[in-house]
Amino acid sequence: MFRRTQTTADDSPVSANDPKPAGKGRPTPKRRDAEGRRRQPVNAPQNRKEAYKQLRERQANDRVKAREGMMRGDERYFPARDRGPARKFARDWVDSRRIISQYFLPFSLLILLLTWVPFPGDTRQYIYAAVITVGWPIMMVGVLFTSVWVSWKVKKLVTEKFPGESVKGVGFYAAMRALQIRKLRFPPPAFLPGGKPVPAKK
Hints:
This protein is mainly α. About 50% of the residues lie in helices and about 0% in strands. It contains six helices and no strands. The longest helix has about 40 residues, at about 120-160.
């Protein structure tokens, strides 16, 4: 008695942003069509040269990311020699103090520059003699004494503050950092001389 009416489904593609919900005048999109729209195109390398180029780009991006992480002080990006609470304490202890050994490289550079200055004959010999026989030996003794003291002091404090941590190499690590010019230290110092934290960069 009653004739069944057939409705023809609209097979036209449905936009993912279509405001009209499925089931209200629009058929539900097929699963393979919806998944196909969600997939992002993958730029697969066509040959070895292109694959190598993509690899170099990824490696360059990874290096930039690691560099930025180290500059932020994110220990996840630090080399193995800079990781751990003992090494962080050593860095902070050295960076928060003015140590004689940190002036060794600037002093050496100053001596090198003095050798290029065209002083008069007698003055030049007097300056050379003063530097070589007085200034240089005093600086070397000061650096040696300071390095030994920094190494001993940091190892002692690390042993007290971190009983479970290994102190192997931490004294040498601190002494070598104390020899570096402050602005060239890496990872960058987190403290200023005197113990105040370095202001965050805006």
